[in-house]
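**Tokenised fold:**
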Amino acid sequence: MTEESIDAIQVIEATIRNCQKSQLKFVAGSAQFTLLKNRLYALEVGRDLLNGYTDITVEALVEAQAPIESIIHKTEKALSNQKKTSPVIKRMTLLLAAMTAVQTAIINQLSAKKTPH
């Protein structure tokens, strides 16, 4: 496992913890609760992929794509609105790198599952 993968997994695990804490603030079934539930699922799939698990179903990979793309989009937008000296930039840059690694892993895994062995 590369150092980049290890760093990405650490960022993902921290993000999972933050989402779990946030989810407690919302009522089950509310839009925010569902958004966090879907995001948590996608983050867990991404973490598993980066940890080398390959037995993830095509359905799980496809389901994880949209939340990961959403995190990437929102992080890029937030980064573009930050001042260059903002202390938030490093955290956002690490999150963006981790989500990009997950997105790439999902795409690679989907390609591998569609290609006959």
The first helix runs from residue 3 to 23. Residues 31 and 43 are 18 Å apart (CA to CA).
